[in-house]
Design goal:
By secondary structure, the protein is an alpha+beta fold. The protein has one domain (23-173): Glutaredoxin, CATH 3.40.30.10. Helices cover 39% and strands 22% of the residues. It contains seven helices and eight strands. The chain has helices at residues 3-15, 32-35, 58-62, 77-95, 109-118, 132-137, 163-173; strands at residues 41-42, 48-50, 55-56, 66-72, 98-105, 124-128, 144-148, 153-158. The radius of gyration is 18 Å and the shape is globular.
Length: 175
C-alpha cells in the first residue's frame, strides 16, 4: 500500500500536475552562500553585447542611474509573465532617474532580439550568451532580479519580481 502515494506522484508529474521547482540555468550548481552577492557588493565589470550585437555592459548602460536588472530566458514562463510589469516599471523609473535592464541569459543576440520584439519588451536589453555576468554574480536561477544603486553596488538580489525587489528599487531611487 505504500507504493500508491509514490505512483500518484509519478503519475501526476507525468501529467504535469505536480509542482515543479524554479527553473535553473543549464550551468553547474554552486551553493548560494558561496556565490550570491551580498548587500553593497560592487557590480562586476563584465562586457556583454546588446541585441544589435554591439559591446555594452550594465554599467555603461546605467551611466550612474539606479537599475533594476532582470535576468531572463525565453523558455522561462515566469520571465515572460513579468514582461508587462517590467515595461511599466521602466516607464515610471525613467521619470525618477532609474531604468530597467533585461539580460537574456544563454541566448544569442539574434534570438534575444527576436524574442524582445515579439513580446514587446520596451526596456533596454543585454545578452549574456556565455554566462559571464551570471557567473560573476553567482546567479543560477531564472528569473533573477538585481538592483544596482547609483554608485554601481548591488543592493538587492532575489528571484522573481516581487515586493522586496520593488522596495529595494524604490529605496535606491531615494523614495
Amino acid at each position: 500500500m505504500r507504493t500508491w502515494p509514490s505512483l500518484l506522484v509519478v503519475f501526476a508529474s507525468i501529467l504535469g500536475c505536480a509542482p515543479t521547482p524554479a527553473p535553473t540555468l543549464p550551468r553547474p550548481a554552486v551553493p548560494a552562500a558561496e556565490t550570491a552577492p551580498t548587500a553593497s557588493t560592487a557590480l562586476p565589470a563584465v562586457e556583454l553585447v546588446n541585441v544589435e550585437n554591439h559591446a555594452a555592459g550594465v554599467d555603461s548602460m546605467r551611466a550612474g542611474k539606479v537599475a533594476l536588472v532582470s535576468f531572463w530566458a525565453p523558455w522561462c514562463d515566469s520571465c515572460v509573465a513579468e514582461i508587462e510589469a517590467l515595461n511599466r516599471l521602466d516607464d515610471r523609473a525613467r521619470q525618477s532617474g532609474g531604468l530597467v535592464i533585461g539580460v537574456a541569459v544563454g541566448e544569442t543576440p539574434k534570438s534575444a532580439a527576436a524574442f524582445a520584439q515579439s513580446h514587446k519588451l520596451r526596456y533596454s536589453q543585454l545578452v549574456d550568451e556565455e554566462y559571464k555576468l551570471t557567473d560573476a554574480l553567482g546567479q543560477r536561477r531564472i528569473p533573477t532580479i538585481v538592483v544596482v544603486d547609483r554608485t554601481g553596488h548591488v543592493v538587492y538580489s532575489g528571484g522573481a519580481l516581487d515586493e522586496r525587489a520593488l522596495a529595494a528599487f524604490r529605496a535606491a531611487l531615494g523614495g
